[in-house]
What we know:
By secondary structure, the protein is of the alpha/beta class. The chain contains nine helices and eight strands.
Amino acid sequence: MLGQISMKQLLEAGVHFGHQRRRWNPKMKKYIYTERNGIYIIDLKKTLRLLREAYSFVRDTTFNGGTGIFVGTKKQARDAIERWAHFAGCHYVNNRWLGGTLTNFETINRSIKRMIELQELCGSGQIERYSKKEQSQIIREKESLEKNLQGIREMQKRPDFIFVIDPSKETIAIREARKVGVTVVAVVDTNCDPDPIDLVIPGNDDAIRSINLSCEKMAEAILEGKMRRVEAGLDPMEVLPEQARQLLAQQREHGEAEEGGYDEGGQAADDYAEETAGAEEAE
């Protein structure tokens, strides 16, 4: 079921493992549960609550016609960012954030149009009309543009929010978002400054499983928002990604409730202190 978020899921993904004590940011103190073996342990009760709040915001923003960008350019995040953005039919940046993506979209849009022009040139076979040297130059330019712009190829306007993995790595994107009033949702580890973030999700931003879980939940929030728009007659079924159409059909068939389920994870919350007792750094 879309929107199911539990303590057990967070524990199994290692979301609670922060950074070494010597690398912490004191502004993250209120999100820290304890310290074990020199590693800060994030308070998952707060993570659970804040992740749910972020989920609701992304879902409702999407339902109201808003859009977002998944942003994560560090090596551990790239695959998850691209995979879950595709799953939700969302824009993404997973290689390099180009300065001006939000603050100078007109210039970025010209580069996107150039990339599409070159893609069509290569895809139609018309590139064969050029010399070998010219073909090589065209292909190199196309690949260079695709590296940074393919994930925002369909972006027609400035987004309403960005979802960020590791704010310490995406300072330019966050600065631009704040400048133009785009909401920043981010997974924030114990070494980060939470102040520039509108919706903080305290969590491990280094471990692949933790990153994957956060991306998955934000993608589900977008899908749920889109599905609600279809159910409300605001959009046709065709606007949904294929996987969302299948989910919506299944929900209609089985008569599932519209609201996502918030599973508390059974015994997981009670076992939290025991689970974190042997914490090791998850970098």
